[in-house]
Amino acid sequence: MMTRLSGAEVAATLIDVEFDPTYGYDLAALLECGPPEDEPDDLDAFWGEVRNEALAVDLDLSLGSWREVEDGAEVATLTVTGLDGVRLGGWAVREPGELRRGIVLGHGYGGRAEPGLGMPAGTLSVQLVARGMPGSETDGIGSVSSDHVLSGIESPRTYSHVGSAADQWTATTVLSQLAPGVPIGYEGGSFGGGIGALAAAYEDRWDALVLSVPSFGNHPLRLQLPCRGSGNAVRLHSLDHPEVSRVLRYVDAANAATRVHVPALCLPALADPSVPPPGQFAVATALAGPTWIHVKSGGHGSWDGDQDEQVNDRRMVARFWDDPVAATRD
To answer: In this predicted structure, what is the pLDDT of residue 199?
Structure first.
């Protein structure tokens, strides 16, 4: 695998964080993080069955009228049926310019209340709200992160993260119907970064992906690290229910990343109180294709210079989508 490394070398000093958000890891140590060694023997068979189920669902797609919004982009609301008959809401967004690419756009654990704009020119994106989140409310799945992350955790097949990954395959099918023959990639951060890695492992219609501060990497390590994010709900739950560790083996984003062979841009953070950096880097270093790791000094927080860094990160992402193969080599 070819890996390009750029970005920060020193962690940001995050504001209003009462513990060390680096967890004692510097960049060199983080680059040594990788997937756990407890991958289940039937991992591929399990996900293959879920994918077959998801792709067999009748989408029953409902697409609203297109309306122009800021900077010439056009937006249409949509609803579609995903795995297990769950009805999902979201948007399709057309950026100005000749259509060049489709992007399935994930979101963080805050959900998505409105469509994301500012994608590269000539992009058509499908932006579904993950099952359970407001806009895709689902019986039995919590609508806030601390509940969603535990919903269905009793077994791999019922776990919310499995359904959420399948929702990205559903979005891909929608996009392929709206723009036949256009190359399709994936972009997502935090929750959407981890879920994107899980989906990408078994999605052969994506030619590239962007994962920012990805969650759900190396669960055995995550269960040892207190944090502000959804991982803490799982950690605390596991103290009384250690059996959940067997379920988490099926939804480890770092294990999934070892099956991702398309060009990828990953933006992990050196300091992050919500998604511990060792888990983020476990995903980044496990990606099996041409990979550009652009290191952020901080994530899920505020620090001096964070706005400038966010602008620069968007430049990196735009550069990647312009030519994913070339971007991983430069």
So the answer is: 98
Q: Which of 136, 190, 212, 297 is catalytic?
A: 190
The verdict on whether residue 186 carries a ligand-binding annotation is: no
Give dist(CA 21, CA 186) in Å, integer. Answer: 28
Q: Give pLDDT, residue 38.
A: 87
How long is the chain? 330
Cα-only R_g, the chain? 18
pLDDT of residue 70: 84
**Active-site residue 190, yes or no?**
yes
C-alpha 191/C-alpha 231 separation (Å) is 10
First to last CA, the chain: 15
103-to-56, 70, 132, 205 alpha-carbon distances in Å:
22, 19, 22, 11
Nearest to 161 by CA among 76, 80, 255: 255
Phi-psi region of 85 (alpha: psi -120 to 50; beta: other; left: phi over 0): left
pTM of the model: 0.98
* Whether 250 contacts 156, CB under 8 Å: yes
